[in-house]
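Weekly modeling sync, notes
Attendees: S.R. (lead), two postdocs, one rotation student

Agenda item 3: backlog of single-chain predictions. S.R. asked that every request posted to the team notebook include the full sequence so nobody has to chase files. The rotation student volunteered to paste the first one in as an example of the format we agreed on. Action items at the bottom.

Example entry:
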Amino acid sequence: MIDDSDIDQKNGRDDGPLNMTRYLTGWRQGNVPGDDYFGFQDGGETFGKVVAQTTMEPPEPRMGDYASKGDYYNAHSRWEAIHEALKASDGDQAAGISGNFMVGYQEGLEWEHGAGSPLNNDLQDGQDKFGYNNKALRSWAGTILAPRMDDIADSLASPSVSVAFDVVAGNFVFDEDMKDRLLGKNGMFTDLAFDSPEVNGNGTPKFSGDDHYEGSGRAPALFNMRLAAQQYYGEAMANASSPGIINSVIALLKQNLQSRVHQTPAPWA
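Predicted structure, as returned to the notebook:
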C-alpha cells in the first residue's frame, strides 16, 4: 500500500488504500501536454515478467524430464511447496497481485494526457496511448490474467455488490462499474485485441509444428485468455455445477471476438 486513501477521483469512488501493484501498473504517467512518459522505459517488459513470475504457479514436474528419480522427487517436492502455499494464505496474495494489475491496467488506459489542452489526445494510431506505448505489458497481460479467467468470468456473471475490488478466499472479485469499464470502448479487453504478433512459419509453410510468434514469442494476449476461458468452460460443463461461470465465459468469448477498436482484426479470430 502506498497511501491512506485512493485518489480514483475521476470515477468518484473510494477503493481504500492504493495497492502498490496497481500504482506501478497504471499510475506513473505524465499528465501534461508533451509529457510522453507512460510508466515504463522498456514498454513494461520487465515489470510484466516480474508480475507473471510472482503470480503464476510453475508447471508440475514430469518424471520423464529428469535424469533420475531423485532429481524428479526433489523438483516435485519444491513444486508441491509452491502449490500448497498458493492454495493457502499466499493464494490471496497472488490473486491480489493479479487483480490489482488488471485494475491498474484499466486505470492506465483511462489516464488523461494533458487534460483540457487542445493537444490532448489519448489515441495513437487508433490505440490508447498507454497500451500503444506499453506493448510488452499488453502482451504480458494475457499471460498474467489467463490463470484467473475463472475469477474474471465469475465477476462478469455476478459482479460484487459490496466492493469495487477485493480478494475473497483466494479469488478476486469486482463490481458492476469495473465490469463496464473493462468491457467498454476504452476497456482492457478492447486494448488487448491490439496485441497481434506475427507468426513466423520458420520456412515450413506446410508444417505448423515449428511456428512461433515474432517479438516476445508469446501468443496474443486474448488468445491465451480465450484458451483459459475454454478450459474453465469445459471444467464447468463436466462438473455441471457453475452455470454462472458458463454463461459469463460464453459472453466473454463473444466480447473477445468483438472487442476491436475500429474493427481492427486480430490474427486468431
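Discussion: group reviewed the output briefly. The beta strands are 123-124, 127-128, 165-168, 171-174, 199-200, 212-213.
Action items: rotation student to repeat for the remaining queue; S.R. to check formatting next week.
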